[in-house]
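If you are new to this repository, start here. Below is one unmodified record pulled from the training split, so you can see the exact layout before writing a loader.
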Amino acid sequence: MYDIIIIGAGPAGISAAIYGKSRGKSVLVLEKNRVGGLIGSVSTVTHYTAIVKEETGKTFAKRMEEQVFNIGVEIRYETVTDVTLRGEIKKVVTDKGSYETKTMILANGGSGRMLGIPGENLNGVRLNAPKDGPNYHGKTVYVIGGADGAIKEALYLAKTASKVVIVCVEDALSCIQEFKDKINTCNNIEIIPHSSLTAVYGNESIEELEFTDNKTGEKHIVKDKTCGVFVYAGIVPNTQMYGELKLDGGYIPVDNAMRTEISGVFAAGDICVKNIRQVATAVADGAIAGIQAASMC
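And here is the target side for that same chain:
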């Protein structure tokens, strides 16, 4: 039995754990993979207050992990398979055990959106920039997406790849001005507007890419067995287990205290209905949820 159980160890979950623990509560964090969530897999962390120089997703996640470890927060690396949210005592079942709590914070964020196209699971598709980028030194890579996350990774890849092709569905990039200005200074970045990657062909690895112009419907085939494809097409909220909650577009509605419709159940971070999804807003959500959950114990 814990005072607070938090599902997810991204910025929102870790922030909630820090604030819950600071108020003398017993806190358990359940995490499927590793501390950091999606932010832990990015090439660089930007626009966060007091960030350290040359911060990467990996170093940012490591410092979060060290912080909660040093204050005695318990983290278990287990996959949650079922939850019971209603009732005075909430229950969580994982692949390794089961746990009970008085309050629960849902902070397990989202997963990268699939494109739903043929060949998406071939080798060389859906790569990770900091992990796989060095393997494409001197080669051509394709970045699918035109928002901030995609462009930040494109800029990172441009340091080693011979050419970076950004494929965005909009007529122009939808990223912030800072990233647009940086793109303009890179002579090895090409932008293909109002287009989509609609198929990848090959046996086990990429052999051909099919692009479709979203305005004309015209298809264009590129033959390149050495290229890599990095997909940044948004996220899908990890709310499949939360059938007891009424969702809005797959996301969890919360009030300004991060409370869900079920008493004793809070949500924080990218999993919530919200307009802005940034590390800063996730940390703020987690702080509020952790404080509010602690006040109920």
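Two things worth knowing about this chain: The chain is about 20% helix and 25% strand. The CA atoms of residues 21 and 187 lie 49 Å apart.
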